[in-house]
Amino acid sequence: MKALKIGELTARIPVIQGGMGVGISLSGLAGSVAACGGVGVISTAQIGYRDPEFEKDPIGTNLRVIGEEIRKARAIAKGGILGVNIMVATRQYAEYVKAAVKSGIDLIISGAGLPMDLPKLVAGSKTKIAPIVSTVKAARVICRFWDHHYQRMPDLVVIEGPKAGGHLGFSRKQLEEFTPVTYDQEIRGILAEVKKYADKYGKEIPVVVAGGIFTREDMLHAMELGADGVQMGTRFVTTWECDASEAYKQTYLHAKKEDIVIVDSPVGMPGRAIRNRFLEEKESRRESIKKCYQCIATCNPANTPYCITRALVHAAKGETDDALLFCGENAWRCEKMENVADIMAEFA
Asked: Which InterPro entries match (predicted)?
């Protein structure tokens, strides 16, 4: 399989491990994927949730722990490529980016909104930048804006499709309208849009496809469309190296296809999760928000049905009946615990 080249960085296996928060992809998983020749990605979403200072100062703790997790991942990665996923909707987004750059991260992948000012935030560093886009329109907007304002292009583009896990870059209507065939057409359109700007700048801009990637065959299909690699999250959750609790991993192993549902996240985006007692209760009962953990800028504690930070922290800790269990469409296909090395060998 052809290597994935991101500027001067080369991943021997063209697989990026998707960033999964809260606490699902931290140094353990990211470092292991990087060590096996892929790109390991740490999610910065409430990354400091395990730290004693988190309750008192969530943002300050997160900014400190970003560096700590990157250092721990480096010790595992054996010189492999490490990235962080930072959501644009994160409160004090710029500070998270600067903390990752300061810690020498190789790559920043950024979605949940378009990272319009990301080039400015990494200026003068060696850190590569990759926006996540889901439509041709989004790809055109970000490339045109970066071209006009910063005279630079992405080092990598991630196309995240409607089968992805967690927060999705689509409206419910779009999720209903896109089929595998029509989304393949959208992928081709995004690739053409990116190539137009790559040609203008005389550089290669690799594009990876995410959302629903579970097997080598899925990767080969993406590459037949013209992609340079894939990003995969769900398959890595049920690995021994994943940073999530064993109880969270078991929810994937026990999930049936009909358990995977689209939910309305409290932060104003649709998302994909495993149906459980928590979701059933929240359909009829609003939670009283006593503390704001300063996670997403679009969240208003005064009218949100529940605190998404608390719900996702419960998932990471294994309190699965009281948790929001984010997952990709293929979570029900996870049948056993695996080693990261074996998965990466399958995709090599």
From this structure: Aldolase_TIM, NMO
Secondary structure of the chain as H, E, C letters: CCCEEECCEEECCCEEECCCCCCCCCHHHHHHHHHCCCEEEEECCCCCCCCCCCCCCHHHHHHHHHHHHHHHHHHHHCCCEEEEECCCCECCHHHHHHHHHHCCCCEEEECCCCCCCHHHHCCCCCCEEEEEECCHHHHHHHHHHHHHHHCCCCCCEEEECCCCCEECCCCHHHHHHCCHHHHHHHHHHHHHHHHHHHHHHCCCCCEEEECCCCCHHHHHHHHHHCCCEEEECHHHHCECCCCCCHHHHHHHHHCCHHHEEEEECCCCCEEEEECCHHHHHHCCCCCCCCCCCCCECCCCCCCCCCCHHHHHHHHHHCCHHHCCCECCCCHHHCCCCECHHHHHHHHC
Is the pLDDT at 273 greater than 80? The verdict is yes
Q: Give 292-310 pLDDT, tens digit per residue.
A: 788 888 777 777 888 888 8
CB 70 within 8 A of CB 105: yes
pLDDT at residue 283 above 80?
A: no
Asked whether 233 and 18 are in contact (CB, 8 A), the reply is yes
Ramachandran bin of 4, using left for φ above 0, alpha for ψ from -120 to 50, beta for the remaining angles? beta
Instruction: Using CA atoms of 59, 76, 212, 274 in order, give the dihedral in degrees to the nearest 10.
Output: -60
* Nearest residue to 252 via CA among 265, 264, 236: 236
Domain map (residue ranges) of the chain: 4-244+335-347, 246-333
Q: What are phi and psi of 81, to 5 degrees?
A: -85, 130
Q: Which of 123, 163, 84, 192 is nearest to 331 (CA)?
A: 163
pTM metric for this prediction: 0.95
* 50-100 pLDDT per residue, tens: 999 999 999 999 999 999 999 999 999 999 999 999 999 898 999 999 999
CATH topology of domain 4-244+335-347: TIM Barrel (3.20.20)
Residue 39 near residue 12, CB atoms below 8 Å: no
